[in-house]
Specification:
Blueprint: E1 3-11, H1 15-26, E2 31-35, H2 59-72, E3 76-79, E4 84-87, E5 93-97, E6 100-109, E7 114-115, E8 131-132, H3 135-138, E9 146-151, H4 154-164, E10 169-174, H5 184-190, E11 195-199, E12 201-208, E13 212-219, E14 227-231, E15 234-238, E16 241-242, E17 273-275, H6 287-308
Parallel strand pairs: 1-2, 1-6, 2-3, 6-17, 8-15, 9-10, 9-15, 10-11
Antiparallel strand pairs: 4-5, 5-6, 7-16, 12-13, 13-14
Helix pairs in contact: 1-2, 1-6, 4-5
The structure holds flavin-adenine dinucleotide.
Flavin-adenine dinucleotide (FAD) binds next to helix 1, strand 2 and helix 6.
């Protein structure tokens, strides 16, 4: 199996991972970012209004800027899913994607959160062929056709508002038994002629041929025999997000909800492994927080690498002092 060796491998290329890569590359540490995509969850929104420096920017544009800045300093990128991570006997780390293995001195886990599955028959079969987890990304593929969206809470209502402007008919399969009548999004949706709410229902199975044709739903109420077959061409799943940390569970300590436990400098329970962003146990999940954690994890990782080489640690990213401060009079 071919192998490449880096000072640090960063898993995930969104706010946390791209910031970490920028900080590492600026210190001239050889850095490889391995990620399924560039941008992560930020790609799901056209409208970020709370990232400092921008009154309004789309997630795609912001993440593109992050990536270009990291790449300009020399970070390398591979686009794939990491399936296995191991600590080797010599203290290095092995990171595997398909039939390729990469080796690094330090490792930064910045792979965020991914959409929660429904876990019903047909979900895997029709993933990408009618089953989608991203209304903003895939909604435009379903213009003027009947579709359904399933989920609970604000996530599903937000997605429904967007999808109702595209679909000929939109079924909103709401898993909870009640929606607050005061909810603005709910009020907005109720006024739309092409929207039908199915409150307190769950999806039972998804069927079709090459693509989705039918979504079967069933009432959630106790002893309910209420069931329906929705003739739709797509199903959007909006069940929130989870940290998919299964592949690192033997490497680092996790919380009960599978988030990676870190300290304020991004250190995990495993020496040489650092973590940042939504995948960690920080309660606030925001782009700017992930970016800040990414920079801290990168500086910690860099210092770890330096220590291994018997060199001096850094305290900040200020590489060079360009202007000599004048001594005060
Ligand atoms: C609809 C929506 C709107 C939002 N709006 C805002 C907002 O306005 N302002 C704000 O500050 N925040 C917002 N957020 C939250 C913000 O997007 C997240 O806090 C931020 O994206 C987290 O960044 P991250 O780098 O920690 O992880 P993520 O964004 O989750 O990115 C994780 C990265 O890791 C990759 N990855 C995952 N698993 C693997 C694997 N096994 N192998 C390789 N790569 C992997 C993914 O492909 C992705 O690139 C929003 C989120 C959503 C969903």
């Amino acid at each position: 199996m071919p192998q490449d060796k880096y000072d640090c491998i960063v898993i995930g290329a969104a706010s946390a991972g791209l910031t970490a890569a920028l900080y590492l590359a600026r210190q001239s540490a050889s850095t490889l970012v391995i990620s399924k995509d560039i941008g992560g969850q930020a790609l799901l929104t056209d409208d970020i209004e709370n990232y400092p420096g921008y009154n309004q920017i789309s997630g795609f544009e912001l993440m593109n800027k992050f990536q270009q800045q990291a790449a300009a300093y020399g970070a390398k990128f591979v686009y794939d899913e990491v399936t296995e991570v191991r600590k080797l006997e010599n203290g290095n780390f092995s990171v595997k994607i398909r039939d390729q293995e990469y080796i690094s001195t330090a490792l930064i886990l910045a792979f965020g959160k991914t959409p929660r599955n429904l876990d019903v028959p047909g979900e895997e079969t029709f993933r990408g062929r009618g089953v989608s987890y991203c209304a903003v990304c895939d909604g435009p593929l379903y213009k003027k056709v009947p579709i359904a969206v399933v989920g609970i809470g604000e996530h599903v209502l937000q997605a429904a508002v967007y999808l109702s402007g595209l679909a000929s008919k939109l079924y909103v399969v709401y898993k909870g038994s009640r929606i607050s009548q005061d909810d603005e999004l709910y009020q907005q949706l109720k006024e739309k002629e092409n929207v039908e709410f199915l409150i307190n229902y769950s999806v039972e199975k998804i069927e079709g041929e090459m693509t989705v044709k039918t979504v079967s739903i069933k009432g959630n109420a106790k002893d309910s025999t209420d069931s329906r077959e929705l003739k739709v061409e797509g199903l959007f799943i909006e069940m929130g997000y989870v940290a998919r940390t299964e592949f690192v569970k033997d490497l680092v300590n996790l919380t009960k909800s599978s988030e990676i436990i870190t300290d304020k400098l991004g250190l995990t329970s495993q020496e040489g492994v650092f973590a940042a962003g939504d995948v960690t146990d920080i309660p606030y999940k925001q782009a700017v927080i992930s970016a800040g954690q990414g920079s801290a994890a990168a500086l910690s990782a860099y210092n770890y690498i330096q220590k291994k080489l018997g060199k001096t640690a850094v305290k900040s990213d200020w590489k060079t002092v360009k202007v000599e401060a004048k001594p005060s009079q």
